Amino acid sequence: MMLFAAAVIALACLACFYRVIAGPTVPDRMAAVDVTGLLIAMLMVLLASHFGFSPFYDIVLVYAALLFVDIMIMAKYLEYKELYR
User: What pTM, to 2 d.p., does this model score?
Assistant: First the structure.
């Protein structure tokens, strides 16, 4: 059942990646990148729990924190058109 859920999440990730490529505006693409990153984190948690590989949980926490920082940096850049202001 977990592998089926992982396959569904992987298909959703592909759909979001399509929105990253074909998004009409930059905020749409940025939201799709964020959702894709969260889906990848969910996929990593599912696979870690299925295979019993617990170090993946720490990796997912660091990945999610870096994803949040990345989205904040991109949002600031889109708002001010520069990073240092």
Answer: 0.82
